[in-house]
Structures are given as structure tokens and as C-alpha cells.
Write a structure and sequence with these properties.
About 40% of the residues lie in helices and about 10% in strands. By secondary structure, it is of the alpha/beta class. The protein starts with a strand and ends with a helix.
């Protein structure tokens, strides 16, 4: 039986690409240095999979920033504002689209389906002209071939590319991106032809939108696309799907596409697909790529259970028509468990990172082929048994407390409008109050202090003194800028989820388990292996110190239970909702401790609430119910005078606006500027939001500093659909990744914009 991997992490086992990118962006190294690092990483990945015995190894899954942006470069869909005049797209135009430049903002960034990865959203219009403008797919295939490694080039499919795109600002209101399909397909035909000429036998085309609820017109687009692509084609096409079950009507459509030789299905998150295959079958001559190894979590595969699935498929389809694969690209999991030296042996035995998952794929293929590695299977069985029986996984008291939560909706007793009036009496804020989202720049010196404390190179007293010094500087800066509601800047925090997970029971942490979030930004998700509880207060010390430095309100900063859940590798032995409720109880205790310590504004970030929304509509209501309930649990016990904020970023919020309202926060700050103010369309359509709201006035993920008038104009658009008494002025997101040279002028302009608008409103 053949083995296949959908994709592999591109950052490197020690984040080599991250550091190479940031060095290049800071003009410390040349493009040639960046390109060498990238090439070395690609070669190492291909050789690793070849040595492991993978039969079908992917290429063109490497990217300097994002695979969708790579596709934009491939087809030459560069927005006119970047001044591209044709030809091969270079790094300057590429990174301008990703990050913006001195004169132009970056393209919109949003979540890749229901993951924590972000893609750069294509901007299209009726005037968009497609042309082959990057030969990356062909050159990387040839590069691997020169090493003696045959690969399967991977492309983002043409229909998904168009469905994931947006109309640019100049496009007519009725413009449909799918209307560009006829002009896009010739570019794909050209790429496939060049890959065939280079010697490629198989090409993987990722069409993840096939798992969504698609209307008939979109299914017709798939039929049309693959009918045209398939004519005179000499390479076999693998149509790859992932992240959910493929709907029955879609499956029927896909398997009848004559040009498609194989279909890849996620059999981890798409558990219903097995029944679909048995019910409908698969036409003769077509192959199933069975995604039985989880590409989105870190738990060791249950090899015996996977063998049972594969054997069942072999009986249904024939062994020669089944390929063992990962459920999706392994870019959504950590790179290699061998780099973990601090995890204890028991926990480590329960885990499998990308490198180990490759070995699992090969072991499964060998087992079905009659070459079972008995030692490998025996070690796997022992690890699974250890995890099931370990006392560190289960806490009866936590389970009982979480079970009791089902008896209440945990709503605050008073309506939000009344609470806001009580809070204003206490806080006495100006109209259009200004604030930031939480974090301030994490300087090299600050990172050094945290690193030295973690490595026992400085004392706790020295560490506390250094962090308090940073907090003092951040508070002083905000007062000088005349910001109304302050933050302490989070200098003690490495990551908004990891910081809390390190202080909660039931979590463990890798040393190098980095996962790409966007561009060079990597996160190291906690691993939730057991029942969650809070042994002691986590933030009160730092928040009360910060409040002691100023008479202005100081926000206590927490990460909400849904975001902690969605940004962690979550245990798979109980429903996610149960784990969420346990985390909610822990955060509730922290909220009430902050209030008791005199903190009157508490922000509970739920940046990832939208991210966890299931892709299929039939499953969304249940998720929204328990996710929103989890947030309400955290804040249900505070006084009316305690103002609860929350924050959300870089997602499409319009389809969950009623759930956002149901969270019953007093104030929500929300990303708005990078997404071209799509959020405002909700309020134009008549949605009434009675709580405070701060749609961001500038994009913090770009080094560009917008002028105060640009920010003021954004806020004026908000005032056209929102009452001035509920509007806040703030950035899109936290400032952790920016430099002070960018932050200070940007916040200066933000405050100036707010004051200008106050003057306009009072005149």
C-alpha cells in the first residue's frame, strides 16, 4: 500500500525560516541568504520523508509567507496599488502584498478555515488579468528531482482560490469572483503542462472548499474547471480535501470528474466519510487517499484502529486503490518530537509531532502490505494504554464542578445598557474613549530577561524588578500619549495562551513545538492532556502593581476559555466542550480575584471564538451555544460596576454577530481595518449592538504607520452606523510584534484622531 503526506511544516525544527525572514525584513541579510535558508529547509524535508519511506512526497508546500499568497503570485493577481508591471513576481512585490509597504497597506489576512493559520486574501475584480507570473511549483519540483527525489507538486485549486478571494473595493457590488474562472484556468493549464514536461507524474490540487455546504452553482464550477483542466492532460490529478466530511452531493460530483484520478479525504475530522464511501463507492480506476493520521493534533495515532479502517477500505475498494495519508497538511502540528528534552517520558510517549506522523503513515502502509513493524505497533499500544490509565489525566473534583455548569446559563443579572451607565459613573471616561488591546512591543531586552529567568541565570527578585520597570515605562508612555484606559503591556508573558497554560493543571508544554500562525509569526500551543484547574492566582500581582502606578483605569488582561481551547492541542478523549467548561471555571476564579483586588476593567480575550466554528452549518449552532456559554461563565459573578471587555481578531465575524451579542460583554474590541471594514456592513444591515464596541482603526500587522486623518476617517464611518456613546477608538490587535518606533507615532495619531472627532461631535 502506498504512503502519502499532504504537506509538511515549513518553518524548520528550530524556526530557521522565521529568523531568516525577520533578518531579511530588517535588512540585516540579503535575499540570497534567505533563499539559501529556504533551500536547505526544503532539501532537509524531502530527504527526511524519502528516508522514512514515504512513497508520494509533496513539493511546493514550502512558502515564504503563505500558500494562497503564493497562488496569487503564480497567477499574477497583484492588486494595482503595488505598482507591479508584469514579469516574474519578486520578493519586493510579494512581501508588499503580505506586509504592506511605506505607502500601501497589506492585503487582508484571515483565518484558514477553522485553524489558527492565516492566509492572505486575494483581491479580484472584473479587470483582473491572470498570467503565469511565478514558476515556483515547477522549480521546486525540479529542485527535488535533482536530489533524486520524485515529488508530487501541490497547488491550491482554482475554484477554492476564487471562492476564498474577495472583490476589491472598485468591483461592482454584484461581482462574483467565480466569474473569473474561464480566465484563470489557462494559467493552471500552463502550470500543469510545465510540470508534465518537467516529469511530474502526479499533481495534488488542494480544493478544501469542497467540505463546505456548496450550492449547485459552485459545484458546477468544479465540474467546469476539471473538465477543462483534464483535457489533453498527461499528469494524474489528486483532488485533496480536508478539515471536515465532504457532503454527499459534493462527493457524488467529485468522483464523477473524469480528469481526477484520486480524491483525498480527511477521515479524522470527517468520520462520516467512511459510510459515504461504502454507500456510494468509488468509480473504477480512481484511488482514495485515506487521511487516517491526524494532521492537526499531537497525539500518537491509534495504529490498531487505523489499520481496521484501512482494511475495511481495502475490502470495499481493493487494496491497490487505497493510499495511506495524513488528514491534512502537517503544517498545523509541531515539527519533531526528538527536539523535546524537557517533556517527561510518559507524556512524550503519548505524542507524535510531524516527523513522527510521517513514520506512522509509513508504518500503517507497511502493515497493510504485510510488513508490519511489530516493535513499532507494540510501543504504540503501550503508550495508548498508559494514557488511558494515567491518574494525572483525571480529576474527579474538576469533572463534578464542570458537570454542574449545565444547570445555568450564567448570565449577568443586569442588562448591558444599565451596566454601562453604572460603569461610566465610576470610570468617568470621555466620549470615544481610547485604549489598546493589551500587549506592547516585546523588545530583545525583554525577551532576554524572561529567558534568563527561565534558565535560572537571574534571581526572581531581579526578574520582578525588570518586569516592573517595563510595566512602569509602558504606563508612563500611555499617560504621555493621553490614552484613556491603560494596559500593563504584558511584559511577563511569552504568549497569550502559553502564559496561562503554564499556570494551570492539566497542561504541558513543548520546548520547540512551534506552529506557523502567519508569515514569520509562530506560536507554541500548550498541550491539554488532563482535567484543567487553577492552583492559584495568575495575573493579580502584575495587574495590581500596574494599577498602583496610575489613576486611570488599568485593564486586567486574561485569555478566554474558548481561545485557550482553540489555540491549544486539545485532548481527544473527551468532547472539546467539556474541556472548555473546565477552563472557563479556572478563568472565572481569576476574574473574581482581579475584581476583589480592585481591578475594575477586565478584558477576557476571545480572539479565536470564530476560529472554532465548524465548517458545516448543521454543526455550528451547537458550537456557538457551548462556546458563548463558556465565556459567560467567566464573567457572570462580577458587579455591575466592573467593566468586562473582550477582543476578537482576523476572522469573518459577520456570520456570528448574534453569538457575539449573546456573550454579553460590556465592551468588545474587534479587528476591522485590515478587512476593509467588512464588520460595519453588519450594522448597516440593521443589527443593533447595545454594548461598547471598538472596531480597530489601524492594522498592527503591518509596519506602516497610518496618519491621524486616515484613522479619523475610519472612525467617522463607524459613527455613521454606531452611536458615539458606545464607540471606542483602538488598534486592530495587540502591539507585541511591532517596534516602538512604529507604535509611538501610530498611537499618537490614534489619540489625535479621537480628539479631533470629539471636537467634531461637540460642535
Amino acid at each position: 500500500m502506498t504512503s502519502h503526506v499532504v504537506g509538511y511544516p515549513r518553518m524548520g525544527p528550530k524556526r530557521e525560516l522565521k529568523f531568516a525572514l525577520e533578518s531579511f525584513w530588517d535588512k540585516k541579510t540579503a535575499a540570497s541568504d534567505l533563499e539559501k535558508t529556504a533551500k536547505d529547509l526544503r532539501h532537509a524535508i524531502w530527504k527526511q520523508m524519502a528516508d522514512a519511506g514515504v512513497t508520494l512526497i509533496p513539493s511546493n508546500t514550502f512558502s515564504y509567507y503563505d500558500q494562497v499568497l503564493d497562488t496569487t503570485a503564480l497567477v499574477g493577481a497583484v492588486p494595482p496599488r503595488y505598482g507591479w508591471t508584469g514579469g516574474e513576481i519578486g520578493l519586493d512585490i510579494y512581501f508588499s502584498m503580505a506586509r504592506g509597504n511605506a505607502t500601501q497597506p497589506a492585503m487582508e489576512m484571515t483565518k484558514w478555515f477553522d485553524t489558527n493559520y492565516h492566509y492572505i486574501v486575494p483581491e479580484l475584480s472584473p479587470e483582473t488579468k491572470f498570467a503565469l507570473s511565478s514558476r515556483k511549483a515547477v522549480s521546486e519540483y525540479k529542485e527535488a528531482k535533482e536530489l533524486g527525489i520524485e515529488t508530487v507538486p501541490v497547488l491550491v485549486g482554482p475554484v477554492s482560490y476564487l471562492l476564498l478571494a474577495k472583490a476589491d473595493k472598485a468591483a461592482p457590488k454584484n461581482f462574483n469572483t467565480l466569474s473569473l474562472l474561464d480566465s484563470l484556468l489557462p494559467v493552471y493549464k500552463q502550470v500543469l503542462g510545465e510540470l508534465e514536461e518537467a516529469g511530474a507524474k502526479f499533481v495534488q490540487i488542494d480544493e478544501p472548499t469542497l467540505v463546505l455546504d456548496l450550492e449547485a452553482s459552485k459545484l458546477e464550477a468544479f465540474k467546469k474547471a476539471y473538465s477543462i483542466l483534464g483535457s489533453d492532460l498527461g499528469v494524474k490529478l489528486l483532488l485533496e480535501t480536508y478539515f471536515a466530511d465532504i457532503p454527499e452531493e459534493t462527493y457524488k460530483t467529485v468522483i464523477e470528474l473524469e480528469s481526477v484520478s484520486a480524491i483525498g479525504l480527511d477521515l479524522v475530522r470527517g468520520s462520516k466519510s467512511l459510510d459515504l464511501i461504502k454507500k456510494i463507492g468509488l468509480p473504477a480506476g480512481k484511488t482514495l487517499f485515506a487521511g487516517v493520521v491526524d494532521g492537526r493534533n499531537v497525539w500518537a495515532n491509534d495504529l490498531v484502529a487505523s489499520v481496521a479502517i484501512l482494511e475495511d477500505l481495502a475490502i470495499t475498494l481493493g487494496k491497490e486503490r487505497v493510499v495511506v495519508s495524513t488528514s491534512c497538511s502537517l503544517m498545523h502540528t509541531a515539527v519533531d518530537l526528538k527536539n523535546e528534552t524537557k517533556l517527561d517520558s510518559e507524556l512524550k510517549s503519548w505524542l507524535a509531532f510531524a516527523a513522527q506522523k510521517v513514520l506512522e503513515v509509513v508504518a500503517l502502509a507497511n502493515a497493510i502490505s504485510g510488513k508490519k513493524d511489530e516493535e513499532f505497533f507494540s510501543a504504540n499500544a503501550a503508550a495508548l494504554a498508559s494514557r488511558r490509565s494515567s491518574p494525572r489525566v483525571h480529576n474527579k473534583a474538576v469533572q463534578e464542578a464542570a458537570a454542574e455548569l449545565k444547570n445555568s446559563e450564567h448570565r449577568r443579572a443586569t442588562n448591558v445598557s444599565i451596566r454601562l451607565e453604572e460603569q461610566q459613573k465610576y470610570l468617568n471616561l470621555p466620549i470615544l474613549p481610547t485604549t489598546t488591546i493589551g500587549s506592547f512591543p516585546q523588545t530583545p531586552e525583554l525577551r532576554r530577561v524572561r529567558r534568563e529567568f527561565k534558565n535560572n541565570k537571574i534571581t526572581e527578585e531581579e526578574y520582578v524588578k525588570a518586569i516592573q520597570g517595563e510595566i512602569s515605562s509602558v504606563v508612563k508612555l500611555q499617560e504621555e500619549l493621553d490614552i484613556d484606559v491603560l494596559v500593563h503591556g504584558e511584559p511577563e508573558r511569552n504568549d497569550m495562551v502559553e502564559y496561562f497554560g503554564e499556570q494551570l493543571e492539566g497542561f504541558c508544554f513543548s520546548g520547540n513545538g512551534w506552529v506557523q500562525s502567519y508569515g514569520s509569526r509562530c506560536v507554541k500551543p500548550p498541550i491539554i492532556y488532563g482535567d484543567v484547574s487553577r492552583p492559584k492566582a495568575m495575573t493579580v500581582f502584575w495587574s495590581t502593581y500596574a494599577q498602583s502606578l496610575t489613576k486611570r483605569p488599568m485593564k486586567g488582561m486574561l485569555t478566554g476559555p474558548v481561545t485557550i481551547l482553540n489555540w491549544s492541542f486539545v485532548r481527544d478523549d473527551q468532547p472539546r466542550s467539556e474541556t472548555c467548561m473546565q477552563i472557563a471555571l479556572a478563568i472565572k476564579d481569576e476574574v473574581e480575584d482581579l475584581e476583589a483586588a480592585g481591578v475594575t476593567v477586565i478584558q477576557i480575550d476571545e480572539a479565536a471564538l470564530r476560529e472554532g466554528l465548524p465548517l458545516r452549518k448543521a454543526e455550528q449552532a451547537s458550537y456557538q451555544d457551548w462556546a458563548v456559554h463558556g465565556f459567560r461563565i467567566t464573567a457572570c459573578g462580577v458587579k455591575d460596576t466592573t467593566q468586562i471587555h473582550t477582543h476578537m481578531c482576523y476572522s469573518n465575524f459577520n456570520d456570528i454577530i448574534h453569538s457575539i451579542i449573546d456573550m454579553d460583554a460590556d465592551v468588545i474590541t474587534i479587528e476591522n481595518s485590515r478587512s476593509d471594514e467588512k464588520l460595519l456592513s453588519v450594522f448597516r444591515e440593521g443589527v443593533v449592538y447595545g454594548a461598547g464596541i471598538g472596531p480597530g482603526v489601524y492594522d498592527i500587522h503591518s509596519p506602516r504607520v497610518p496618519g491621524f486623518e486616515e484613522m479619523a476617517e475610519r472612525a467617522r464611518k463607524m459613527l455613521a452606523v454606531l452611536e458615539s456613546k458606545v464607540l471606542w477608538i483602538n488598534p486592530d490587535c495587540g502591539l507585541k510584534t511591532r517596534k516602538y518606533a512604529e507604535v509611538v507615532p501610530a498611537l499618537t495619531n490614534m489619540v489625535k484622531a479621537a480628539k479631533q472627532l470629539r471636537t467634531e461631535l461637540s460642535s
